[in-house]
Design goal:
Elements lengths: L6 E7 L4 H15 L2 E6 L9 E7 L4 H11 L5 E5 L4 H5 L4 E3 L13
Antiparallel strand pairs: 1-3, 1-4, 2-3, 4-5
């Protein structure tokens, strides 16, 4: 089993749900001491939706997952471990809350 250095949760949104996503990410960062990335109102990385990244470690995994599940209010969230294999992390190891979205993982196949 690969070593897991931590986790990312990518919260997806659009123009209509931007404020909801920002509030969710800011609240999660404050409650759990997570590192919150930028609110991307454009496509970034393999994501085909606007997104914001939350980064956290093992010690917060269960609490963050439960809190996101109970507070996402319809937002789609991709959660994945950080093993050093970006392709596997975003595909084989991915966990989804809500609709599974396509990803553009071509950048990981170089």
């Amino acid at each position: 089993m690969p070593e897991v250095q931590g986790y990312h949760a990518h919260v997806y949104f659009d123009a209509d749900s931007l404020d909801q996503a920002r509030a969710l990410c800011e609240q999660a960062a404050e409650l759990f001491g997570l590192k919150m990335g930028r609110i991307h109102e454009r496509l970034v990385g393999p994501h085909v939706d606007w997104s914001c990244q939350l980064a956290f470690g093992h010690e917060r995994f269960a609490d963050v997952m439960l809190w996101l599940a109970l507070n996402r209010k319809g937002l789609v969230i991709l959660i994945h471990p950080l093993t050093g294999d970006d392709l596997a992390d975003h595909t084989e190891h991915a966990m989804w809350m809500g609709e599974v979205r396509p990803l553009d993982v071509g950048m990981f196949r170089v």
